[in-house]
Amino acid sequence: MENNVLKRIFQENWEWFSVKHKKRIRPAVEKEVGKFLGCGNPKNGFKLLVCEGCHDIRRVPYRCKGRFCTTCSCGETEEWSRMMAEDVFQVNHRHMIFTIDEGLRDIFLRHREMLKDFMDEAVRVVQEHFEKKHKVKVGVIAGLHTFGSRLNFNPHVHMLVTMGGMTANGEWKTYDYIPFQKLRKVWQTVVLKLICRSLTEEEKRKVQPLLQKAYLENEEGFYVHAPKQSGNVKAQLGYIGRYIRRPALRGVCKAV
Ligand SMILES: [Zn+2]
Ligand SMILES: [Zn+2]
């Protein structure tokens, strides 16, 4: 019997579930679940290892390297964060998280085409702030999460941001202050504008009450935070990298 609980759940239920909800399952989801289900199955190919001494034979099935796969994605995440921590400037970074009002989540769920702009806008807010305030080019690596801790749809952006930047004459200038109050308001305006310019007039009319509510109920703007990091630069980078690339279902594995 399969001892990966999640895989067992998918083996037992994916077939009927995908038939029942065919229209609502995006091709990318179908593809990733397919890879996950076939991962490690020798029918999909394997390496054959033979011991030259005793001629013992081992078959090692290929893995799927899928981002949804609980076996592969953890390894990929480790590798990615390790390489990223090597690659980036070895300076202090902060892990910034940009979220939105709960009432707006559904709009993004129904208009997933806005998600790329959503992430890009968050990056732009950060870049523009440091450019204006400190006249520097800041370094940002951004990742979009569409899931929350309860696996609900909850789009938010994680960013790894250098606490310093390059001036026009190529010098490095450091700073440590993040003006959360200001960023929250700017981010709120940017998200509301993004929705307004992406939807048709009719769609806009429908979501107008939600936009109004999101504006009025968040006087201080949408929640933006950046937890203080401890430890050396490399350890911080590794931690943030793993967090940004964390697969959706790994949290569930741990909690079970
Ligand atoms: Zn896999
Ligand atoms: Zn997240």
Automatic annotation (TrEMBL):
One of its GO terms (biological process) is DNA transposition. GO terms for molecular function: DNA binding; transposase activity. Residues 139-249 form the Transposase IS801/IS1294 domain. Residues 9-100 form the Transposase zinc-binding domain. Pfam families: Y2_Tnp (PF04986), Zn_Tnp_IS91 (PF14319). Transmembrane segments: none annotated. This is Putative transposase. It comes from Paenibacillus tianmuensis.
